[in-house]
Structure prediction request, 138 residues.
Amino acid sequence: MIGFAYLGALLVSLGGLAVLDRRFRLAFWADPARTAITLVVGVLFFLAWDVAGLALGIFARGDSPHMTGLQLAPELPVEEAVFLTLLCYNTLLVWRFLDLRVRGRASRRTNGGAARADEVPADAPAGASDGPTTGAGA
Prediction:
């Protein structure tokens, strides 16, 4: 059972990213088709990169008791594809979050300058207010 530890950790991490995605509607919950295409293209690109590196002798599969031992190709473990999915999904979520923040700031600038502290653009993730703070310390 220890052979599935790394794969399990990767899947739990992917699940955590999916929860964040759903909460903030960043990728799959905003545009499922475009997100799926983006992830597939990214994962295939990096898998091709790995295969080229393996063919040239640059990369090699390491041995670990925490891996399943299942291979997609010689020297290419299943965990690599899951890791690349995690990497691409994480990058996509960060990109979407930052993009929404920049768009929110730009829309506030074009809609009359300074925004109130409680105004947040409709497409911005929850808690993404960049308005001035108010209170005793302000």
Remarks:
- The longest strand covers residues 71-73.
- Residues 78-110 form the longest helix (33 residues).
- The two ends are 55 Å apart (CA to CA).
